[in-house]
Amino acid sequence: KQEVTQIPAALSVPEGENLVLNCSFTDSAIYNLQWFRQDPGKGLTSLLLIQSSQREQTSGRLNASLDKSSGRSTLYIAASQPGDSATYLCAVRHNFNKFYFGSGTKLNVKP
Amino acid sequence: NAGVTQTPKFQVLKTGQSMTLQCAQDMNHNSMYWYRQDPGMGLRLIYYSASEGTTDKGEVPNGYNVSRLNKREFSLRLESAAPSQTSVYFCASRDRDWYEQYFGPGTRLTVT
Q1: Which residues have C-beta within 8 Å of that of residue A45, sequence separation ≥ 6?
Q2: B19 and chain A: CB distance < 8 Å anywhere?
Q3: What's the pLDDT tens digit per position in A13-59?
């Protein structure tokens, strides 16, 4: 069974820092990996989607990389802002319709 | 274009009561999903529907039933609620080409 782990569970950084969030998965036979943002009491908002054939995707200050063979993805956030404070989740598509989620990293960016 | 909508937003049930959670999407997606999210755990798939007229069990289907009413709507039913079903429930749909998921705002359910 696919297992997805996100470390650390929580992270607190001062505003302006560049930071990296980690996501690891046990079975490298994935089709894609998606990063989400979740604000307290809200649903999930898609940030980036990386297909299995891709190495990275970028959107604004966000860059996500994927290394399928080692079972890892990272989400890089440049010049962090207090508005980036949220929980970040990763999810892998393991087969046609099954998605597996990590438990998330709760990020706090201090002004 | 509302995306994925869910009703109700909040619900409190007594043990043994039943209820149906409603989900609708206006993106013309074929596939729809129901997840539950518990503290300290990632989202876990309850049921999914690959297309209108089909449904399949996910990781944690016990205690739930689903109906894919039409292409837009996918409902989740708790026949006899238990305290272990206290959770936040999310509905999602998926686009056909990129397999990107889109989520609703969630339903916060408490079973006492």
Answers
A1: A36, A37, A38, A39, B103
A2: no
A3: 999 999 999 999 999 999 999 999 999 988 999 999 999 999 999 99
